[in-house]
Amino acid sequence: MTITSTQSKAPASVVNVATGRYLSTAAAVAFNITLGFKPRYVRVLNNGSGDQYEWFEGMADAEALKTTAATSAISLITTLGITPLANGFTVGLDEDVNVISEQLSWLAIG
Description:
By secondary structure, this protein is an all-beta fold. 0% of the residues lie in helices and 55% in strands. It has a nine-stranded antiparallel sheet, with no helix packed on it.
């Protein structure tokens, strides 16, 4: 189930911001979020565990800075992270962040 909210600021200095939540009740899988713009920054937070990842423009596809809440450890992951798309992004299947029946909240800025 995906809930999405999008705001846009128009013409010359276009800034797009979208927030939403995602909850997988069937199986934890990589999934796409459609925004209508290509993000320059994405943050995904697991509301249950507090684990999260962030992706910044310039990082490779499927990379992310991953923060594990229990240990406060921050690491760069190079697979199963976030991949930007022309009109949104893909959230990879990292076992700490993308977990079945745990709600994810996300923020994308483009």
